[in-house]
TrEMBL record, chain A:
<keyword id="KW-0001">2Fe-2S</keyword>
<dbReference type="GO" id="GO:0046872">
    <property type="term" value="F:metal ion binding"/>
</dbReference>
<dbReference type="InterPro" id="IPR002888">
    <property type="entry name" value="2Fe-2S-bd"/>
</dbReference>
<dbReference type="InterPro" id="IPR036010">
    <property type="entry name" value="2Fe-2S_ferredoxin-like_sf"/>
</dbReference>
<dbReference type="InterPro" id="IPR012675">
    <property type="entry name" value="Beta-grasp_dom_sf"/>
</dbReference>
<keyword id="KW-0408">Iron</keyword>
<keyword id="KW-0560">Oxidoreductase</keyword>
<dbReference type="GO" id="GO:0051537">
    <property type="term" value="F:2 iron, 2 sulfur cluster binding"/>
</dbReference>
<dbReference type="InterPro" id="IPR051452">
    <property type="entry name" value="Diverse_Oxidoreductases"/>
</dbReference>
TrEMBL record, chain B:
<protein>
    <submittedName>
        <fullName>Molybdopterin-dependent oxidoreductase</fullName>
    </submittedName>
</protein>
<dbReference type="GO" id="GO:0016491">
    <property type="term" value="F:oxidoreductase activity"/>
</dbReference>
<dbReference type="InterPro" id="IPR008274">
    <property type="entry name" value="AldOxase/xan_DH_MoCoBD1"/>
</dbReference>
<dbReference type="InterPro" id="IPR046867">
    <property type="entry name" value="AldOxase/xan_DH_MoCoBD2"/>
</dbReference>
<dbReference type="InterPro" id="IPR037165">
    <property type="entry name" value="AldOxase/xan_DH_Mopterin-bd_sf"/>
</dbReference>
<feature type="domain" description="Aldehyde oxidase/xanthine dehydrogenase a/b hammerhead">
    <location>
        <begin position="30"/>
        <end position="144"/>
    </location>
</feature>
<dbReference type="Pfam" id="PF02738">
    <property type="entry name" value="MoCoBD_1"/>
</dbReference>
<keyword id="KW-0560">Oxidoreductase</keyword>
<dbReference type="InterPro" id="IPR036856">
    <property type="entry name" value="Ald_Oxase/Xan_DH_a/b_sf"/>
</dbReference>
Amino acid sequence: MSEHTDDLVAVTVTVNGMTHSRRIEPRMLLSDFLRHGLGLTGTHVGCEHGVCGACTISVGGRSARSCLMLAVMAEGLEIETIEGQGTPEALSRIQKAFQDHHGLQCGFCTPGMVMAIADLLAHHPLETDDQIREGLSGNLCRCTGYINIIAAVRELARERGPLT
Amino acid sequence: MNKPDYSDVVMRPKLVGKRIKRTEDLRLLTGTGEYVDDVQAAGMVHVAIRRSDRPHARIIAVDAHAAFDIPGVIGVYDMTDFEGECEPAVPTSRMKDYYATPTWPLARGKVRYVGEPVVAVVAESRYAAEDALDHIVIDYEPLPFAIRQVDAVKDDAPLLHEEAGTNVIVRREFVRGDVEEVFRTAPHKVGGTFRMTRKCPSPMENRSYMAQWDKRNRALTLYSASNIPGVVRDVLSGCLGLSSHQLRVIAPDVGGSFGGKGSLYSEEMLVCLLARKLQRPVKYVADRLEDLAAMSQAFDELIEAELAFDDEGRFLGLRADVIGDVGAFSIYPWTAALETVQVISFLPGPYKTEAYHGRIRGVLTPKPPTGPYRGVGRPSSTLAMERLVDMAARKIGMDPAEIRRRNLVRREDFPYRTAPGIIWDQSAFLECLEGACAALDYPALLDRRDAMRAEGRWVGLGFASYAELTGIGSRISVAPGMPINTGTETANISIDATGVVTAAFGVASHGQGLETTLAQIIADELGCAMADIIVLHGDSSLVPMSTGTYASRSAVLGGGAATVTSRGLKAKVLRMAALLMEQQTGDLDLHDSTVTSRASNQSLTIKEIAKAVYNQMGRIPRDQREDLVFQETYDPYLGTACSSTHLCMLEVDPGTFGVRILDYVVSEDCGRIINPMIVDGQVHGAVAQGIGAALLEEVIHDGEGQSVAASLADYLLPVATDIPDIAIVHIEAELPNNVGGFRGMGEGGTIGAPAAIANAISDALAPLGVEVNKLPATPDRLFALVRAARQDKPPAE
Ligand code: FES
Ligand code: FES
C-alpha cells in the first residue's frame, strides 16, 4: 500500500483503553483495522454484510457491527472488543457464564455474541426467554442451536436483576 | 433397557460421564484462539479469486493486463501458469461404472459451474487483490448445459466432462427379495416424490488457507480451515510432487465445518502452488459470497419411493428410484457416491424391510459439487422413509407411533442385516421411540393437538425414527468404494521428563470439544489428573497416518484409541513403578497421578516415576528401563449404530404460513456418554441445522445456473427465535464390541429433524389434504400447496 501514501488518512481510536494512531486507507473496514491493523483478531468476520454479528464490538458503549463501519468513522471514539472483556486467567462474568453453560462450540461466533450480550444486559429487560431470543436474533451461531447461549443469558439476567 | 455395567472397561470411572467444562473455552472465549485468518507471517501476500460467472463455457483467453496497474498487485495466474507444476487430485473409487473427475487448482480449459475459481490475483493486500479482479477480462465460449438433474440424466444431455462419456458418473442398485411380486400382491401401497433441496453447510468461519514455503527445508506448511488435515496432506503432497515430510497441514482453531470443510478444495492446492512459486507466505480467505457459491453443497436427490404393507401395518416391501444431483465434480476424497449411495443404503432405516429395491443414479450438473454435510444422505433417506411410514399409518388409520413400534428392528433381531447390507449391532431402536413418547406424554400431546385443532388451528405432530452407522472401522470405507482407510485412529501418548502427559491424535476437532473429551478418557484410563494432559490434534505431522474428524468417528475411534493407548502406557508406568518400589505390578494401582501399592504403604507420583525413568539413571536397571511412550491404533472394524426418535408438535400460521415449533424431543442412544454437556450441545446444534433444512435453507440455481443466494440475508440460517427448547432423552444401550462403548452422535439431529417436521406439517395440514414431501417448507411453498389443495377441492373446515 506504500504507493498509496498520499491517500492515507490519520485515525486515532481508543480500543480497550489503549489509544492507537495509524495512517490508513479511508476505505478500510473497522473490522479489518482491528484484526489486521491492531492485531486484535478476537473480533471475527463471518459475512461482511452486517448479517451474522460475528464482528460485533462495542462503540461508545453500544454494540455495533465492525464490518459495517469504516475505521475512519471510529475517529476519537472508545471501542471495546472481546479482548477487553476478560482473559483466560480471569474470564469476565459473561465469558464465565458461557463456559458454565457450554454456550460455545467452535467459538467463531462467540466474541460477537459476548459483545452483543454485554449490550443486551446493559439496556434490555431480558425478563423472558422470548425477550432473550429476540435479543440474540441478530447474531448467528451455526453450532449451538442457541439453547445453551439462552441459558447463559437467562442466568446473567437473573443475576443482574431488573433494569432500573 | 438395563444400565450397562462398565466395570470391566474402567476400574473407577471418574471423569467420563461427567459435565466437565471444556478446556478449549478459555482461549475461544477471550479472543485468543487462532483461526487461519489470525495466522500472520512476515512478507505474507493475499489472494483474491475471479470466479466463473458461467455455468458451462470454454475459456478462450484471459487478459489480465490492466490488473497490473493496480498498486500492490504481484501476479495474476490462471491454470496455464501451473501446467507441469501439479497433478490433479483424482477421487478414485472401486465402484463400478464410476468416473472420477479431476480437481485442479483453477479451472482448466472449461468452467463447469458459476463460482468455479478461474483466475487468482496475488497482491500485497486483500484490498488491492480484489481491486484487480475487476480489471481481468475472461473471454468465454458458452457451451450448452442441463441445469436440472432430470434433464442432465438424459442420454442426449450436453456433457459436462466429455471424457466420462456420460453425465451419470455413479450408479448403484440394491435388491433383496422379489420386490415386484410383493408390490403386486400387497394389500396397501403408498408412494411419493421426496426431496431435500440443496443446502450450503455454512459454518460461521468461511474457508481460509495460508501456505508458507520454508526455504531452509524446502517444505510447505499449509494452515487450513479443514477437518481432514491428514487427508489433505496425503493427497496434496502427491499433487505437488513433494514427499510427505515436505508438507505439513495444520488445522488450528476451525470455526465449524459440518462437512463443508471436509473435502479437498482447489483453493488449498492454489495457495500451496503460489507459496512455492513466490517463496512467500500466501493467504486466501473466502468471503461469504464465495462460500455460498463454492463450498461443497448438500443433498439434492430426487427420490421416487413406494412402500407396501399389510392390514396390520407391517412393511412388506420398499422400492425407490433416486436421481442425485452431484454438481460439477466428484469431490475429493469422498466421491460423488458418498451422499448419493447413502440415500439408498439407509432408506429402509431402522425397520425390518425384507423386500427392497433401491436404485440411484448420480448425475453431473453445472453447480458446485455436493459433498459431506452433517447427516450425509440420511436426512434425505429419512425424510422419504418417515413420510412413507406416516402415509401408511394414515391410510390404514393407525397411530404413527404404533406403526413404528410394529416395524422397528427389535432387541431379539440384533445384529440385523438390512437389505442394502448394513449391520445394526445392538441399539435401542424401540426404547428410543418409547422414550420420546414418554418424554412428551404422547397421549396428552395428542389431546393437546386435538384441542387446538378444535379451535381451528393448524397443529400437527410428527415422528422420525432413524438409525445411522457411526464410528466406522476398517471393514468398509466411510464413502462406498473409496480407497482411503477411514477406519482406524492412532494415538500417541507420552509422559515427559516432568511428568506431563502429551496425547497426539489424528482427529481434528472443530467445535466438538475433543481436547476435553479425549482428556477425560485418558485421565480415567491412565489414572492421571486432567490438568496434566495436553491433547494435540488437527496436525498431519502428529501420528503416522491420520485423516481427521468426520462421519461421527472421533468419539468412537479417537475415544477407542485414547483408551487402548492409555492402557498400554499405564502398563509401562506400572512396570517402572514396580521396579522402583520392588513390588509386583499386580499389587499396584494408579489413581490421581500416583501409583500406590496394596502390598505395602509405598507410593510414587507419575512425576517421580518420570524423573527416575528419564533423569535418575541407575535407579531402574538399564535393560529393563522403558520410555513412557505408547502408540496404538484402534480399529472398531465394523461401525456402530446410533439410533434415535424425534417427536415434535408444531403450528402453521394460516395467515403467514410460517411454522412455529411448540414441542420438540430427541430420544437417542449414543452409547456410553463421555460428557453429557457436550452431547446435549451436539444434539441442539444438529437439530437446529435440521430445522434450518426443514424450514429455511435452500440453495436455488436459476435456469441459467446462477445461484440466487448471495448473502446470509438470502440463504437463511436459523436464528435464536427459530429454535425451540429441545428436550433430550438419553438411552445408553450397552455396546459390547467397542472399546469404551461409545457411539458417534454428532450428526443425528440433522437426520431426524427434517423428517419429523415434514410429518408434523403434513399432520397439521392433513384436514386440507396437503402433504409436505419437499423441504424446506417455506411459507411460499406451503402457501402454494394449500392453495392448490383448496382449488382442487373445497377446504376441509
Ligand atoms: S461480519 Fe459483520 S455482521 Fe457478519
Ligand atoms: S459456536 Fe460455532 S458458530 Fe457459534
